[in-house]
Write a structure and sequence with these properties.
Helix 1 runs antiparallel to helix 2. Helix content is 48%, strand content 24%. The protein is α+β, with helices and mostly antiparallel strands. Keywords: Membrane, Transmembrane, Transmembrane helix. This is PH domain-containing protein. It comes from Natrinema thermotolerans.
Length: 162
């Protein structure tokens, strides 16, 4: 089983902090708006500090989950399929038969480019969850994985998916 590059934690932590800041800004801003206007005449004095506390707790939880996510994420190119294992609270095991692979892309978001990472996206035949992504790869590993998956998909074209 292959693990992701440890630098992916930086990306996941940054995204967790940005999302927490946005959510916290909305919650705290709404609490301030309610207490400073006539929307809720009897608003308790604790409303804004409670909103700040909720935002901080959720931010810490997001950061912890982002950190733990790395320890769970694994993938493997097996004989007939791509196997992916992930999930902090709910473990998800995904098996993608090579015969179902339609095409394989790689992408690099601005944050991934800054940290020297890339993501491989595997598009499969089917309607539900028709693509899977493998984040946290070096660009060289992403390119080699993309080529390997493409070759394995071509080799399995004549086989039956079931």
């Amino acid at each position: 089983m292959e693990r992701l590059t440890p630098r992916v934690r930086v990306v996941w932590l940054a995204l967790a902090l940005v999302r927490a800041a946005i959510f916290g800004g909305i919650v705290v801003g709404a609490a301030i708006g309610v207490t400073r206007t006539d929307l809720w005449a009897g608003a308790p004095d604790i409303l804004v500090p409670a909103a700040v506390a909720i935002a901080v707790v959720l931010a810490v939880l997001r950061v912890v989950v982002a950190w733990l996510r790395y320890g769970v994420w694994r993938f493997e190119l097996r004989d007939d399929d791509l196997y992916i294992e992930r999930g902090v609270f709910t473990r998800v095991r995904t098996v993608v038969p090579y015969v179902r692979v339609q095409h394989v892309d790689s992408r690099r978001s601005p944050l991934e480019r800054t940290t020297g990472l890339a993501t491989v996206v595997v598009y499969t035949a089917g309607s539900r969850s028709s693509d899977v992504a493998i984040p946290g790869l070096t660009p060289a590993r992403a390119e080699s994985l993309q080529e390997s998956l493409r070759g394995l998909a071509i080799e399995s074209e004549g086989e039956d998916a079931v």
